[in-house]
C-alpha cells in the first residue's frame, strides 16, 4: 500500500495568476490546437461520445466552428458508418459521389431517395457514370403522376450548366449566382460525371471559414469504438465512411485489453489517428502512448453524470490527473496531445485544463441541452429540459442490452436489471438553444483567458501558467456573491 501525501486538485481548487499581457484585443489571440499531431482544430473543444450528446447533427455543428464531435458507439455498425458519412457529405465544396438515380426510376422513387438523404436534388445517370439529367425537388413537387419516369421531369443535358474539374470555389459561386442555380455538376471533357457542387455548400463554406475540415474540404468527425466483439469491424466501417479519428473509449483505459486493442488497431490501420483512454495516471498515459495511441484521453470520474468514484473508490481529481498524464508522457519522451475529458462546467474550467497542459477538452453535459444533441426537449416543472445520461448509467446499460438482443425481444428481465452496477446517472439539463451560442461564450472566455495569461496561443498559456490553490472562501468569492441574481 502506498499513500500519496500531496493533495490532488481539480478546477475549483485553483485559479490562474494574471500575467503581464501584450494582448490589446481578444481578437489578437489564436485558439487553434492539435487533436493529434496530424489533426489541427480551430478551437480546443470536443463534444463527448455519449448517446445524449453526439450524433451527426452535433458533430456537424461542432466542426463548423472549428471543433470536432465524436459520434458515440452505442448503435449498430451500419448506422454508425451512415452517421459518419452524413457528416462527411454535408459540406465538402465538391460532393465527389453525388446520390444518383436511373432515368427509368419513378418520380416517387426519386422523392423517397431525396427524403431519405435529406437532399434537394439527384443526378440522373444511365446506370454508369454518364450524366443524362438532373432532377430537383422543384421538378417533382407538383408532378401529377408519381409513377412517371424521372426522365419525364428531369433537366436534360443540353440545358444543364456544368463545371469542370478545374473550376474554383469563386468561379463556382459566380456560375451558381449568374444562372440562379442550386446544383452544378462537374463533368470531365468526355461528359463523365466527376462530382457535384451545391449552392448550399458554397454558402456554408462562406459562413463558416473557421470550420475543421479534412484535406478534401469535408467536415472532420470522430467515431468512438470499444474493445472486443464487433469493434474491429466497427473501426473498419467508420474509417471507410471517412472518420478522421477513432476514439477508443473504455471506462478504465489502463487495462490490458485496451492496450491490446490499441496495438491491434495500429497494426490493422497504420494510417488511422487513434485517441485512447480514459486514464488518470502517468503510467496509464505512457502505456497507451507506447501501444501506439496518437492522443490520450484523461478523466476517471470527473464527469457531471459520473459516479465511478463513489461506486468504486477510484479516480483522480481532474487537474492533477491531467498534470500526471502529461508528466508520464514527458518522462517517456513522447510528444502527443492530451484531452481533458469531463467536469467542464464553465469556460474558466476549460482555460484551467488547457493551462495545465491539455491540448483540448471533451464536454458532455454542458452540451446535452443543445438543440443539436440527440433527443427532443421536454417540459419539466414548467421548464424546457433535455435528458443527459452517463454511458454507464442504468438506463444506458439497459438500452445497450436491448439493442444487443434485438427489437423483437424487448422486454427486459428482472435478472438484467439486477446484473447492472451503474457508474453513472440519468439527469435533465436546461434546454440551451443552439450549440454555436454556447461555443461563442466558451471561446470568448478562452480568448479573454489567453489575454489574462499574457498569451497569444494555448502553448504560450501553458508556458506562462502559474496556478494558486484557493480556499473554500476563495471559491465563494470567485462566484457572484452577496447579491440577488436576476
Ligand atoms: P461532462 O462533465 O462533460 O463529462 O458531462 C463527460 C464525460 O463523462 C464520462 N462519462 C462517464 N463517466 N460514468 C462515468 O464514470 C458514466 O456513466 C459516464 N458517462 C460518460 C465520459 O468520459 C464523458 O466524456
Structure, described:
The chain is of the alpha/beta class and about 475 residues long. The protein folds into two domains: about 10-90 and about 215-395 and about 425-475, Aldolase class I (TIM Barrel); about 100-205, CBS-domain (Roll), CATH 3.10.580.10. The chain is built from 18 helices and 20 strands. The protein has helices at about 55-65, 75-90, 105-115, 135-140, 170-180, 200-205, 230-240, 255-270, 280-290, 310, 320-330, 345-355, 365-370, 395-405, 415-420, 435-450, 460-465, 470-480; strands at about 15, 35, 40, 45, 70, 100, 120-125, 130-135, 185, 195-200, 220-225, 245-250, 275-280, 295-300, 340, 360-365, 380, 385-390, 425-430, 465-470. The strands form six sheets. An eight-stranded parallel β-barrel has the order 4-5-11-12-13-14-15-16, surrounded by seven helices. Strands 6-7-8 form a three-stranded mixed beta sheet. Helix 1 (about 55-65) runs parallel beside helix 2 and helix 9 (about 280-290) packs across helix 11 (about 320-330). The radius of gyration is 25 Å and the shape is globular. The site of xanthosine-5'-monophosphate has 25 residues, from strand 16 and helix 13.
Amino acid at each position: 500500500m502506498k499513500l500519496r501525501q500531496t493533495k490532488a486538485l481539480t478546477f475549483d481548487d485553483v485559479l490562474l495568476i494574471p500575467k503581464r499581457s501584450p494582448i490589446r484585443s481578444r481578437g489578437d489571440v489564436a485558439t487553434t490546437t492539435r487533436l493529434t499531431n496530424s489533426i489541427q482544430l480551430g478551437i480546443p473543444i470536443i463534444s463527448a461520445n455519449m448517446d445524449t450528446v453526439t450524433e451527426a447533427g452535433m458533430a456537424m455543428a461542432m466542426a463548423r466552428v472549428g471543433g470536432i464531435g465524436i459520434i458515440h458507439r452505442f448503435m449498430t455498425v451500419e448506422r454508425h458508418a451512415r452517421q459518419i458519412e452524413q457528416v462527411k457529405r454535408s459540406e465538402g465544396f465538391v460532393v465527389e459521389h453525388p446520390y444518383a438515380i436511373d432515368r427509368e426510376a419513378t418520380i416517387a422513387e426519386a422523392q423517397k431517395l431525396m427524403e431519405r438523404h435529406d437532399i434537394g436534388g439527384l443526378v440522373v445517370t444511365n446506370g454508369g457514370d454518364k450524366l443524362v439529367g438532373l432532377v430537383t425537388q422543384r421538378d417533382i413537387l407538383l408532378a401529377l403522376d408519381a409513377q412517371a419516369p424521372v426522365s419525364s421531369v428531369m433537366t436534360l443535358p443540353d440545358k444543364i450548366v456544368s463545371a469542370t474539374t478545374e473550376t474554383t470555389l469563386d468561379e463556382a459561386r459566380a456560375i451558381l449566382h449568374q444562372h440562379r442555380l442550386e446544383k452544378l455538376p462537374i463533368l470531365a471533357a468526355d461528359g463523365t460525371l466527376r462530382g457535384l457542387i451545391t449552392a448550399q455548400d458554397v454558402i456554408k463554406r462562406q459562413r463558416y471559414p473557421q470550420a475543421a475540415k479534412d484535406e478534401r474540404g469535408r467536415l472532420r468527425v470522430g467515431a468512438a469504438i470499444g474493445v472486443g466483439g464487433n469493434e474491429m469491424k466497427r473501426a473498419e466501417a467508420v474509417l471507410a465512411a471517412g472518420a478522421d479519428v477513432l476514439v477508443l473509449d473504455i471506462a478504465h483505459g489502463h487495462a490490458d485489453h485496451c492496450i491490446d486493442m490499441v496495438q491491434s488497431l495500429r497494426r490493422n490501420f497504420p494510417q488511422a489517428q487513434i485517441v485512447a483512454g480514459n486514464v488518470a495516471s502517468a503510467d496509464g498515459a505512457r502505456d497507451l502512448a507506447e501501444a501506439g495511441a496518437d492522443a490520450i484521453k484523461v478523466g476517471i470520474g470527473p464527469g457531471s453524470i459520473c459516479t465511478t468514484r463513489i461506486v468504486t473508490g477510484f479516480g483522480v481529481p481532474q487537474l492533477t490527473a491531467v498534470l500526471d498524464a502529461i508528466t508520464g508522457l514527458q518522462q517517456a519522451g513522447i510528444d502527443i496531445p492530451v484531452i481533458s475529458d469531463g467536469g467542464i462546467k464553465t469556460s474558466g474550467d476549460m482555460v484551467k485544463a488547457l493551462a495545465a497542459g491539455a491540448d483540448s477538452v471533451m464536454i458532455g453535459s454542458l452540451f446535452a441541452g443543445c438543440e443539436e444533441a440527440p433527443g427532443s426537449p421536454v417540459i419539466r416543472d414548467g421548464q424546457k429540459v433535455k435528458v443527459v445520461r452517463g454511458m454507464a448509467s442504468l438506463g444506458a446499460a439497459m438500452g445497450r442490452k436491448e439493442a444487443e438482443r434485438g427489437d423483437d425481444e424487448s422486454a427486459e428481465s428482472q435478472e438484467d436489471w439486477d446484473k447492472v452496477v451503474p457508474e453513472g446517472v440519468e439527469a435533465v439539463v436546461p434546454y440551451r438553444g443552439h450549440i454555436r451560442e454556447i461555443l461563442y461564450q466558451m471561446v470568448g472566455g478562452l480568448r479573454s483567458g489567453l489575454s489574462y495569461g499574457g498569451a497569444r496561443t494555448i502553448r504560450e498559456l501553458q508556458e506562462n501558467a502559474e496556478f494558486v490553490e484557493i480556499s473554500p472562501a476563495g471559491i465563494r468569492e470567485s462566484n457572484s456573491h452577496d447579491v440577488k441574481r436576476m
